[in-house]
Design brief:
59% of the residues lie in helices and 3% in strands. The chain folds into 2 domains: 1-61, no CATH class; 63-155, Orthogonal Bundle (Arc Repressor Mutant, subunit A). A two-stranded parallel sheet has the order 1-2. The protein is an all-alpha fold. α1 packs across α2 (48-58) and α5 (100-107) crosses α6 (111-125).
Amino acid sequence: MPLLAEQAWFGGAAIAANLASAPVAHEEASGIAEAMRALDRPGLLAGAAEAGIAGLLLHNGDTATGRRFLDAQLGPVGDGPRGDALLLTALAYLDAHGAVNETAKALHLHPNTVRQRLERLDATLGESWREGSATGHPRRATTVAAVSRQRGVAE
């Protein structure tokens, strides 16, 4: 059996003030661990602060808040048969700091495919989603979308 250090693991931590609140803390910790898995952050025991906005919006089963945030920031981008591909492309593009070739490499796609997807995103969100401070909310929203899809709550 491989050692824990040789495996990808994802951990979440929450504090229970007393025994009665332990189930709520367990649910929060499980949600944080799932957020860390969706964010691809192995080997980190995380609390709410490390899980960031994705953990905040999706912990304790509060999917309605996360859904409202996604709808406000991404609109119909996640809908339809290409929704997941567009969201993954947006997330990879923002993670690559706007580098198309790095995005293509991360997604195992041709750079032209990435450019076509970016054009579809621009048509839906407007080109400002890629630039400056405007990237903050789409970046957070694509992260929340990734986590919620991992948990099966975005549908």
